[in-house]
Write a structure and sequence with these properties.
CATH class of one domain: Mainly Alpha
Helix content: 55-70%
Structural class: mainly alpha
Largest sheet: none
Distance between the termini: 32 Å
Shape: elongated
Number of helices: 5
CATH topology of one domain: Arc Repressor Mutant, subunit A
């Protein structure tokens, strides 16, 4: 998708100095939309676990305690979610830092 947008902009002669900034803003908007769509496609429990870990900074142990689930089950769901999101976003290029395999929530 991003490649197609860049090709179209190149055809239109996007040599303006502001073009890279607009391209970055456009790519960021596309990435944000892809993240939202991906998370919306998950079961509610998976969205909740992912959100608690990545948007609220809660540990796997804390999430599992509040949900009454085993730590290893929450960890497995979180890893599955991260993998699914990583796959959904792979066409954007570089993996977002919060989805790197070395993230503490997945260790």
């Amino acid at each position: 998708m991003v490649e197609r947008v860049r090709e179209e902009e190149a055809k239109e002669g996007g040599n303006d100095m502001a073009a890279p900034l607009l391209d970055t803003e456009h790519e960021r908007a596309l990435l944000s939309q892809a993240i939202i769509e991906t998370l919306d496609s998950w079961p509610q429990l998976h969205r909740q676990i992912f959100s608690e870990a990545h948007y609220h900074g809660r540990s796997v142990e804390s999430i599992s305690s509040s949900l009454g689930m085993r730590v290893d089950t929450v960890r497995l769901i979180l890893q599955e979610c991260e993998g699914r999101l990583r796959s959904a976003l792979n066409h954007f290029g570089k993996t977002p830092r919060f989805l790197c395999a070395c993230h503490p929530s997945t260790c």
